[in-house]
Amino acid sequence: MRSALFVPGDSEKKLAKGLESGADALFIDLEDSVALDNKEAARTITAQFLKDTEPLKGRPELFVRINAFDTGFVEKDLAAVIPFAPEGIVLPKSEHGKDVTRLDALLRVDEVRADIEDSSIKIIAIITETAIGTLNAGTYNRSSKRLNAVSWGAEDLSADIGAIRRRNDDGSYRDIFRFARVQTLLGAIAAGVEPLDTVYPDFKDESGFQHECMEAMYDGFTGKMAIHPAQVPIINEIFTPSDEEIERAQSIVDTFEAAGNPGVLAVNGEMLDRPHLRKAEKLLARAFRV
Ligand code: COA
Ligand code: MG
């Protein structure tokens, strides 16, 4: 997944617009962008939207971001949306792989109730929104077969910590947030799922956004979450491997295969060993998944 666009679950207008955004996924939000008084309306609007939306084909995958476990809303949120079979659920403020396992168990029951295929609903977890969650980023391996990706959040983490600033004057993140970002990347790889970079709230700052997408792509993130439709094409462009990158990766894979899969070989005076092969295979997997 390259781009995931957050859409407040209580806005019919934005939901309709989200479908046309070109995003790989919509994260329909029942959590932070919906006021407490509006939670029930958001459940109803989101359920209706899922019901009315045509089956998957050329449209974004639909994920619903439910409220966190400590709110007591999780069962209500799931009961409202699972009957309409969203492609997945986004779990915010996940603090441990066990939270994902717990959500997996709830989904299993809801799937049976709604007569949906077992384990068909995916999970994406946001894993650094609290201090404890950030420290536990390495606990997601084998948490659930449903887990497809993890992402991170800076806003809630700064509230949990009481940090006054998230970024330096030059726009770079301060240490705590760089740590959370790195924890997410390593936690994702350790769990064998995709790392998704966090949102960039200043949606009018196109060049800052572009820069942050590039940095994420360089470091190994496979995509980024968006909060505004204008951010989607930028994400898609930056996280889609170019034809040259695909060609080069394919030629590395082919060269290893032709040489009988050795540990190391030389191509045009350059050493290529197993990590180069793994990297090339990863890029091809990414290129042909999108
Ligand atoms: N999804 C779908 N459509 C969106 C959108 C989104 N996330 N954000 C904006 N739009 C639509 C607007 O409704 C508007 O539509 P219109 O031209 O038909 O009126 C158009 O895109 C342009 O929007 P703009 O005027 O630039 O922004 P705004 O002031 O309407 O909205 C935000 C700004 C931040 C409130 C809005 O982008 C938003 O709701 N983002 C998602 C917030 C969220 O879900 N946060 C939780 C995760 S951090
Ligand atoms: Mg939040």
Give the helix/strand layout.
Blueprint: E1 3-8, H1 12-19, E2 25-29, H2 39-52, E3 61-65, H3 74-81, E4 88-91, H4 97-114, E5 122-126, H5 131-135, E6 147-151, H6 155-161, H7 175-191, E7 194-197, H8 206-219, E8 223-226, H9 232-239, H10 243-258, E9 264-267, E10 270-273, H11 274-289
Parallel strand pairs: 1-2, 1-8, 2-3, 3-4, 4-5, 5-6, 6-7, 7-8
Antiparallel strand pairs: 9-10
The chain binds coenzyme A (COA) and magnesium ion (MG).
Structural overview:
The chain is an alpha/beta fold. It folds into two domains: 236 residues, TIM Barrel (Alpha-Beta Barrel), CATH 3.20.20.60; 47 residues, no CATH class. Helices cover 45% and strands 16% of the residues. The chain contains eleven helices and ten strands. The strands form two sheets. Strands 1-2-3-4-5-6-7-8 form an eight-stranded parallel beta barrel, surrounded by six helices. Helix 8 runs parallel beside helix 9. It starts with a strand and ends with a helix. The model has no long low-confidence stretch (mean pLDDT 95). Coenzyme A binds next to strand 1 and helix 1.
Write the H/E string, N to C.
Answer: EHEHEHEHEHEHHEHEHHEEH
Approximate shape: globular
Provide the residue-averaged pLDDT: 95
| Helical stretch tally | 11
Instruction: Name the helicity range.
Output: 40-55%
Briefly note the CATH topology name of the largest domain. TIM Barrel
The secondary-structure class comes to alpha/beta
Strand content: 15-25%
Largest sheet: 8 strands, parallel, barrel
In spatial order, strands of the major sheet run 1-2-3-4-5-6-7-8
Bound molecules: coenzyme A, magnesium ion
Low-confidence stretches: none
What is the CATH superfamily label of the largest domain?
A: Phosphoenolpyruvate-binding domains
Report, as a whole number of angstroms, the end-to-end distance: 7 Å
- Number of structurally distinct domains: 2
Q: What is the name of the CATH class of the largest domain?
A: Alpha Beta
CATH architecture of the largest domain: Alpha-Beta Barrel
- DSSP strand tally: 10
For this structure, the quaternary state is single chain
Estimated radius of gyration: 20 Å
